[in-house]
Each structure stands twice: as structure tokens, then as C-alpha cells.
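S.,

Sequence below, as promised.
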Amino acid sequence: MNKKGHVLNAILLALGLGVILSVDPWTFQPNNTEDYLLVAEKIGQLSLPVVLGALFPDVDTAFGKHRKTLHNLPVLITFLVFPIFFNNLHFVWIGVATHYVLDMVGSKRGIALFYPLSPQEYDLPTGVATSSKYADSVTLVVTVAELAVLAGVHYYLVSLDVSLAAAAASFSAIL
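The prediction came back faster than expected:
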């Protein structure tokens, strides 16, 4: 996808994820029913990290090999574990991960997930050219799918509204 698509994806993700983390899925009311401002506050907290994460992988257009240097699993893993050790950059990983999904599902080219071990780019046949008139529509469809997955994870597997250190501790307690 192009920069416009990644920005659109990130903004919609921040809005949607802010609602997912703040609203009871059964009543569609904020978890704290006395204050609807909590939803806006959560969206505000998520906007900057998710947008920065969604734009970060394309920094590799300025150096290295685009869709290889910063579009791979080692970079994503770095953003996943960083908050555990340094207690900051929470939710940036969501922007990075959804950037990868958008590039793999929404565009024809794909990304090199296992770079630098392998330069092969992986994609799905659902993608369109970044200059296509359908690029924005594909971005919207992919974003809705990403939000559905994030909602499923949040409501049924593990709360996304906790620090990754707490989530890692809860997983290790289960094992």
C-alpha cells in the first residue's frame, strides 16, 4: 500500500481499537458508564503509537531495501518485546503488524518476512497495485478484518489493554 493507505489504516485502527478497549461488546456502552470521555481518551492514547508504528516500516525507503529491511519478523519481534524491557512504546507493535498485513494482503508485491535470511517476498493474491483505484477500498476491507481479529483477541484470548509484561506473565503462569 501507499503512504495514504497506511495512514488511513492507522487512523481507523486507533479509532476502532480505542472503542474495542473501552466499550463492553454486549451493551455497546463504555466499561465505565458514567463517562463517555474515556473512549475519546483511549483513542487519543492509541493514536500516536499506532500511527507511528504503521508508518515506521516504510522508513526503509530512505535506506536499505524497501519491503525487506524493516518489513520482517525480527523487526516486529523487537517492537513486541521492547515494552517488556523498557515499559514504553506500547501499541506501536500493532501499527507495525497491521502495516505488514496491509502490505501482504492489500498489495501485489508483498513483504520479505524472513529477511535477511531470505529475500523472498510473501503476499496473498488479494492485493492490488498501490496506484489502483481500488487501493482505498482494499485498505478499508483489510482494516475492518484487522479490527475484527483484534476484537476477538481482546474479548476472548487476552486483554490488549494490559502491558505486554503483564500479558507475558499471565501466559507463563498458564504454562
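The mean pLDDT is 84.

Coffee later?
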